[in-house]
Fold:
Amino acid sequence: MLFGKSGKGKMVIIIALAAVAVLAGVGVVVLKNSGKKHGKPEKLPTVEMALGEFIVNLADKNEVRYVKANIVLEVEGELPAASGEGKGEGGDPRIRDAVIQIMSSKHFSELADPKGKEKLKKEIIIAVNERFAENAERSDKGKETPVKAVEVFFSEFAMQ
Structure:
């Protein structure tokens, strides 16, 4: 009685379970492939952008203190052609101004500590990215890949 009442019912259940298993397998494959595209953003190529040398008075009130630093940014995305053209060796004056504002707000004791230098780097990245965003808004080329500072390097750093 393979095809009796109970046989037809079993066959329908087996076919239904096989269809569910196939659909589940297809779903897993689709989700895996979509996770590769959407799970992690693609890492954009980086380029180094030299900001040049900075000599800045520190915020210490009791003594005249200054810092001299040569700063290089690691930037993700494509730099606008004007980032170095016609704006001096260090690029956009708005970016240089942001760095100067941050550095001049620091005290000697803050920057003497390695943690203070790391904090300074993070603050520079935030300020520079704000300037990049402002520049992108002013630009006619808003559809380009956004530029983003990801790292700051001090190729020279001295305080007195």
